């Protein structure tokens, strides 16, 4: 018996602590919470970095078409003889169509310079062009890298959106669970207070002979039951609160705070979600970032397939330089002074490029198979979810009517009990039915809200911040 008393006292102390905490708590609404998650959570910042990385990668690839210069100077002087002095300076500008324009100067002089490298006068200026006729005509390494970087940018932006979508959905789930458990705490607390007031009144009535003493025993048992339920709801609420705090950050620090209360009531939150759901058109899976990721990946694999096909061709590169004549009286003259060359190469068996091309085709097919599978699964989930939301909406309306009727029966039973026309057992039964109906309604409302946001998650519209 003493152990039971200690347990009752422990639950009362918990209730008192919770009541004191409520007075020191501050209010936090869903909109403020989800905004902070988007701005402060480390995973949100990581998602922002993915977008930045895509931009930097694209800029890096475009740098392959930046002009660049090169120079080389060599000199050998031995035993008073200038064996050779050679110099080469060049600036080259790659062109997006695959060619490259270049200009430079050559210098060669000395006692033992190769006659081919000897320049008459001071230097030999030249203008030239390089281009590929077979492999590299339609697409080359530079163009491949630039186009690939654009697709990678799209992939990283889509991956960022996927991460945001995942983070905001789970954060919202946590908030709804916290709001639901807070509502259950409030309900159980109210019923504990009602049972305590009735117990106090029955003691007074039993002392003057208006009620049998056995009613105080039954009322005391009910208080214990209510306090146990209240204690359980407090435990689940605290668990949900700590889960909620895991999504609250400020800078690089987790902003853990146990002194917070929800700004909105669960019923208000559910009504807002219901209103948005009724206005919502059927979620379109085409907006889902997961499917977009496969589409962008498909574009990347098509580009890779095109480039692998280009590598099967033989290499035939042409080079042509117009040479200047600085000894002419007219200065630098390029007419009838030129140097040209042709380069050709190809593997005899072509095993590497042909099999790389076949692998790229398989990768493209596999990506399409995955896309078709994911799209089918997503459309099935969305259709089932719309049906679930409709059923939950009807169940909520039914639960509200059940709660209304249960309260009417409880009020009627209370009047009869006050007039000594009913028993405490019947009144407690009616009251327990009201408690059960309130808890059922809260659970249905929370379930509807969570499924509504699941529809937002599947559609990928990111409309988590309710209007």
Task: Describe what this molecule looks like in 3D.
- The protein has 467 residues and is an alpha+beta fold.
- The chain contains nine helices and ten strands.
- It has helices at 2-24, 30-40, 42-62, 141-207, 214-245, 266-279, 289-310, 351-418, 424-459; strands at residues 26-28, 68-78, 81-94, 100-109, 124-132, 249-250, 253-254, 260-262, 315-323, 338-345.
- The strands form three sheets. A six-stranded antiparallel beta sheet has the order 2-3-4-5-9-10, with no helix packed on it.
- A hairpin with a 5-residue loop joins strand 3 (81-94) and strand 4.
- Helix 4 (141-207) runs antiparallel to helix 5.
- The longest helix is centred in the C-terminal third of the chain and has 68 residues, at 351-418.
- The mean pLDDT is 88.
Share in helix: 55-70%
Number of strands: 10
The tally of helices reads: 9
Q: In what range is the share of β-strand residues?
A: 15-25%
Report the span from N to C terminus: 55 Å
**Taking Cα atoms only, what radius of gyration do you get, to the nearest Å?**
40 Å
The whole-number mean of residue pLDDT values reads 88
Specify the biggest β-sheet.
6 strands, antiparallel
Described by the principal axes of the CA atoms, the overall outline is elongated
Category by helix and strand content: alpha+beta
Q: What is the topology, as strand order, of the major beta sheet?
A: 2-3-4-5-9-10
Low-confidence stretches: none
The succession of helices and strands, N to C, reads HEHHEEEEHHEEEHHEEHH
